[in-house]
Queue: 3 jobs
Job 1
Amino acid sequence: MPKTTQNSPPSSVRIRQVADAQNVFRKRKKDEGCRRLQEWVPEETLAQLRAITQRTGMSRAKLLGSLVEAVYLNKIDVKEVMA
């Protein structure tokens, strides 16, 4: 059985607390109109994404949203960029 300190709840209680907090977070994000996106990308792409977010101070979600909006509004021509 795992050790607990006087100030920490048993692990099963803590696991339930974390799960409940995660469910509250997910519900709040969904209620805000957000949807979870999970994709596999090459390591280099992830490294580039990290560098851009660090350089700009933007979150990955904000950066992705801004990029998609720019393409959608024809501010960026993806076909030109990909050529």
Job 2
Amino acid sequence: MKRILLLGTLLFTMHNIYAQSPKKNVESNYEKSSSELLNRSEYYELTADQRNRIIERKRSIGREFAAIGRDHSLTGREKGQKKRQLSMSFRNDIYAILNESQKVKWDKESYNKYQVSTAKAEIEYKLELLEIEYEKDIKNIETKYRNNDSKRKLEKNNRKAEYKLQKSELKRLKDNLS
């Protein structure tokens, strides 16, 4: 009976948290990370007490973030600094709640996500460079073979096929990171 009441209370609390959080607000990485921590509580082996403490801290951080955003006496830079400090204190608060094995799992997941996002950004950069290089090569081909239509068309088609192959390979690599 106690388990059912606890589960009911927890579900009601979680429903209220998600119902009250506006979707248009951008969450910090730590808030997203804490949401993942809560959503995957079985993987992290969180106790009910740990979940409730994280939820309560997340609520209070949300209110503090909103208060900083509404404070018109602060410049944009000062707001950013305060929000970064608040995010770091939030992460430290979460660390204080977790045990050692949970901290290791959480850090490992965060690091893996960082590596994936960095790799994706690098691939996006390579795609942009590839596009620029392709456009430059097409202009060079047009200039070089301006008097020979058949040779120009052949070279452009060859370069286009090479470009498409390189682009599809980069996109495949990016999709495999997901």
Job 3
Amino acid sequence: MTMHIIFLIDSNALKQNPGGQFGNPQNYPGPHPPLKYGRGNDPNTYTNQSGDTPVTVYFNEEVLISVQDSNSNIGVACAPVGFVAMTWQSNPITLDDLTGGDAVIGDISFRDTRVNSYGYDYVTGSNSPWAPENDNTNYLVTRHDASLTSPVKRNPYILVPALATAGVLQYGLEFYCSIGGEYIGNYWFDPSITIAAPQ
């Protein structure tokens, strides 16, 4: 199964607070953006929650994370370009947590399979392996830059592989945003995922 998590960013707030760049994003203005999440391919059936809500994911479920405009402005284009592993069970995360035999996450991937329909592309050669974050070496980050070819309605996404260890992962999500074909900036915020055994 796949858990879809869609963060609903406010493009009006971003337009009033431009800034940040790839690898050096600006804090998302205001509280964490609200989210909706669920299984299956119909977002109309997903649950709406505050952006501070840790989404519960069951063992062996992959997680698909994307960013969309809450104002439904068809000129707004967003793409997640960075995933920062911050803490695991409130402790600093380690490279073994990400890539070892008992990895919490494993290798995530940036997907743009919808690029031909929606006009986004991840920049060839810009993907990076897990490495310490610039601002906090206790955090580990992987990034993949994106470029815009035309305003789009939907977005590329990050795919986190199936998870199999119970606990709470706090992570940072960096995303790129443009409005009407004009680059506005890169932003980030830090939500959480709770990994649990199926009930």
